[in-house]
Specification:
Elements (H helix, E strand, L loop, with lengths): L3 E2 L14 H18 L18 H24 L1 H37 L4 H4 L3 H5 L1 H9 L10 H9 L2 H10 L1 H18 L4 E2 L4 E2 L4 H16 L4 E2 L3 H18 L1 H6 L1 H12 L8 H18 L12 H8 L1 H22 L3 H26 L33
Antiparallel strand pairs: 1-4, 2-3
Helix pairs in contact: 1-2, 1-15, 1-16, 2-3, 2-10, 3-7, 3-8, 3-16, 7-10, 8-9, 9-10, 11-13, 11-14, 15-17, 16-17
Length: 403
């Protein structure tokens, strides 16, 4: 039997059940993004970006590609291209509304923070000064996604790559290889000609160029669909990936670079290609190596992710859109608190002790609302003889809505 299997299918989890790895790592990405944007947070020192060229954005986009393949790929297969496209369009509209809402909430937070504290211009810190200098023009840019300031720029990327899925599924009808070839060609074109969408917030293109970042999104999508295969039993691939991960850690630590000239030279060489906007190849390779090592080490232990201590992370991954929006706003509020009461042990406990449980509570609250408890018990009573036989609840992956 061939040892080559799809990366998405290596877990012991049955394919008709929700894969806990996707929820866990997406929830982990939400926490990493919160820490990365919370100025002064001690956990900033432990986010992926501190240990290599790739970071939580890569994890978020990659896992999103896999979850989109699960949540929407089946719709295209069962109900056809038009219905699948309609569902993608509906999801894009939801993300678009979320983007506008998040911008407004964050704008209110920085205005209140600037006025309340008085000694800090948080509007400038988050890059919103252009919006308040020209609100009329910026509003047009905001609703057309051509005003894409920092800190609120990842959802437009998600909308952009999600909008490519109908074309991807159309090409896949001809051949999945055509999808992979087109993705690579678009990535190369974006890097060579700097193809991008306009961004009036910074007088340049989107910080996350969707024509380049679609590569990592469609890598996850293609792995989940089975269009790409990974030899999970390859010792050479595993140890090669380990070497890349270790080198990534080495070039990210100034203590190592200061003591080892060869590592410092490697760091300087990698820095020349460091381009987050266009997803430089070193970043992409480092993330894939990290993902491969993680999946190999986790193989056969996936059930650990459902243990009680990790359930809050899984729950946040299941409600990723809500947690992302709330986390972005709370991260800046937490940063304001750190600015004015310090970053010592007490403030760390105060801010993280309030924010992290609050995010978990929000995830549970959103899940409660999605279950529409007010509809339960509304159906007419059925006689006992007419009741269907009891069975254990099965949650088909196709019915899960991943964000």
């Amino acid at each position: 039997m061939s040892q080559t299997v799809a990366l998405a299918d290596v877990a012991a989890v049955k394919p008709r059940f929700r894969d806990p790895r996707l929820d866990f790592f997406r929830g982990l990405a939400m926490f990493f993004i919160y820490f990365a944007h919370c100025n002064g947070n001690i956990f900033y020192n432990f986010i992926p970006a501190r240990f290599g060229p790739s970071d939580s954005a890569d994890l978020f986009v990659f896992v999103s590609g896999m979850t989109v393949a699960i949540a929407f790929g089946g719709t295209f297969a069962r109900q056809g291209w038009l219905i699948g496209t309609a569902r993608i369009a509906y999801r894009c509209m939801q993300l678009y509304a979320a983007q506008l809402g998040m911008f407004c909430a964050l704008a209110v937070a920085v205005v209140v923070g600037t006025r309340f504290f008085g000694d800090s211009n948080y509007i400038r810190q988050v890059g919103f000064q252009g919006f308040f200098a020209d609100p009329a023009g910026s509003l047009i840019g905001l609703v057309t996604l051509t005003y894409d300031p920092p800190y609120v720029d990842i959802l437009p990327l998600y909308i952009g790559v999600l909008a490519m899925v109908p074309l991807v599924m159309a090409l896949a009808r001809i051949s999945p290889r055509l999808v992979i070839g087109a993705s690579i060609a678009l990535y190369l074109a974006a890097n060579f000609w700097h193809l991008n969408l306009p961004n009036h917030a910074e007088d340049n293109g989107w910080h996350f160029d969707p024509f380049a970042w679609q590569l990592i999104f469609l890598t996850g999508f293609s792995l989940q669909r089975g269009w790409l295969k990974v030899p999970m039993a390859s010792r050479a691939l595993f140890w090669g990936s380990v070497a890349i991960v270790v080198l990534g850690v080495a070039i990210s630590q100034s203590e190592i670079c200061d003591r080892v000239a060869a590592i410092d030279a490697l760091r300087a060489w990698a820095a020349k290609f460091n381009d987050k906007t266009y997803l430089d190849p070193i970043r992409y390779l480092h993330f894939l190596a990290t993902a491969y090592v993680t999946i190999r080490l986790l193989r056969g232990r996936e059930h650990y992710l459902l243990s009680e201590p990790l359930r809050p992370i899984v729950k946040c991954g299941q409600q990723a859109l809500s947690i992302f929006i709330c986390g972005m706003v709370l991260s800046h509020i937490g940063g304001m608190v750190f600015d004015h009461i310090g970053i010592g042990f007490g403030p760390q406990v105060l801010v993280n002790g309030i924010t992290l449980p609050l995010l978990v509570a929000i995830a549970h609250g959103v899940a409660w609302f999605k279950n529409a408890p007010w509809k339960q018990g509304a159906a007419p009573e059925i006689r006992q003889s007419e009741r269907a036989p009891s069975r254990a609840p099965i949650v088909p992956v196709a019915n899960q809505v991943y964000v």
